[in-house]
Amino acid sequence: MTELGNRLREAREAKGLSLADVQEITKIQKRYLSGIEEGNYEMMPGKFYIRAFIKQYAEAVGLDHEQLFEEYKSEIPSSYEDEIPQRATKVEKVRTTVPAEPSQFLEYLPKILVTAFVIGAIFLVWFLIPKSDSNDKAVKEEAVVEQPKSPVVDEKETKKETAAPEKEVKKEEPPKPKQTLSAAGASGRKATYQLQNAEKFEVSVLSKGETWVGVTDGSGKSYYGNMLTKGQSQTFDLTGQTSAKIVVGFAPDTEIKINGETLTYQLPAAEQVRQDIIIQVKPAAQ
Predict the structure, then answer these.
(1) 88 CB-near residues (< 8 Å, 6+ apart)
(2) Ranges of Basic and acidic residues compositional bias (predicted)?
(3) Assigned domain for 162 exists
(4) Residue range 29-78, pLDDT digits in tens
(5) Could you list the residue range(s) of the whole structural domain that residue 208 is in?
(6) Which of 31, 54, 167, 190 is most buried per CB count within 10 Å?
(7) pTM, to two decimals
(8) Contact at 8 Å (CB) between 251 and 275?
(9) Phi, psi of 265 (to 5 degrees)
(10) Total domains in the fold of the chain
(11) Which helix (H) or strand (E) holds 224?
């Protein structure tokens, strides 16, 4: 251990500091602080850092670093002075590598630039003159060309073509005659009706109480013959038949409809409870 290292260690211990505490204060690794106390400067990262580390160590333990450098200058390597001549020699070597005389290329550079400029000017003049002449000729030729005449349009033909076609007038079909159910006469218990202009022949019978109903067509074919209680109804499609016969057992409780139209009794239902209704179908008017 050197005298400088012993002096620093004693000052550290007098303040009650460990190497770890000095490391925390100075941010210098503990192994470098231990090397300074032992005088082992070879382990330092570089000679330049020796004096800097000693200065920081001295300030941390309350010693004057200038006084230490003066007292123990024989122990501290003078690394800073040794590095200055070495750096200067390196600068001189670098300077000697710069060429003293200019290169031959720099001597001929102005001549090359002038020659290139002259060639470029000649080429530009040669390129512009023929182009302007050809443009003048093209303009003259365009002025001579005659514009084509527009064809004469015949106004009469145009009007014929543009005339809108007349709309075809649709002929209105005459309305179809409405169905009629009319009384044609009554005798005894028999009442006759005529059905005209009907597209179909459909008979519906509804019982409002209790009644017996029988339905036959003009050929005598029976479609129904039975009692109907209150609320019951029967419907028969007789389309194509020329006549039909409906036998009603109790007219006051029987409602008859022909193609949805209610039949009005010619004979009073209260007076003639048993009635034979004859429906004659006449073809629709042409």
Answers:
(1) none
(2) 152-176
(3) no
(4) 999 999 888 988 888 887 778 889 989 989 999 999 898 888 888 888 77
(5) 180-282
(6) 54
(7) 0.40
(8) yes
(9) -65, 130
(10) 2
(11) strand 222-228
